[in-house]
Amino acid sequence: MKQRLLAVFWAALVVCTAGAAGQDVPELRKAILMVYYGTSNDSARASGIDAMTARVREAFPGIEVREAYTSRAAVNALKRHKGIRRPLLRDALTQLSTDGYNSVLVVDGDIIEGKSSRNMQQLSRDYYQHFFELKATTPLLYTPDDFRNALTPLLALADPQPDEELVFVGHGRDGAYNDAYCLADYILQHEGHPNCHVGTISGYPSLDNIKQILARTGRRKVVLVPLMMIAAGHATRDIYTTWREALQREGYTVRLVRRGMREYPEIQQLIIDKIRTALQQP
Question: Which end of the chain has fewer CB atoms < 10 Å from its terminal CB, N or C?
């Protein structure tokens, strides 16, 4: 997995910075483009997107910071129902070029590498000729250290008790990219958290897999924690309702953590650290 992911990442970086090859260095007008999947949920958008963008603006006051969404459905719903306009990634890159920004860092707002990351990389390939410099960060969970650093504050907030089993619930991804959730589970087990597990809504491990694991532990109390950037539709429908009710029918007492990952100051700082590292790279 690691070799494949690294190969994709370095290939993307080489392509995204190719626009600088053989050119004299111009005066750089820098911009950071925060790329989110997006949501029409006002509360989740405020706490999981607006707050993140505000922290980036505070951390990098001399650089233009903008947003883009990757979900056309979210963009359309915001415009149709709330009169709020958010650009898709392609439109945001076009506007940055039109506005004269020639050094752009695209911040991958996804939790793991998947469809959104692949689309972002392809767009970077399509648009690199419009900029002197176009770079991209990796998603939040990419290296083993990323997983350790991100899971620690989530564990601290959930604070599982000795008689509780903690289950992080992610969305799940297509194909081999889903193995990131298995890596998260392995790291938890390997580093001294045998009562912590990772499940997915539409991937592996599934709810049925989690039920089997819980049945073997003998504990009857479960904490469900979203392993998602924002606690919006999937968290409300799938974790707080479907998973909770399914476990309660099995006789478990269920406690919920109603918070998306990007709401944690520690997670926000990890994203800022990725931005700072990428900005410093040649």
Answer: C
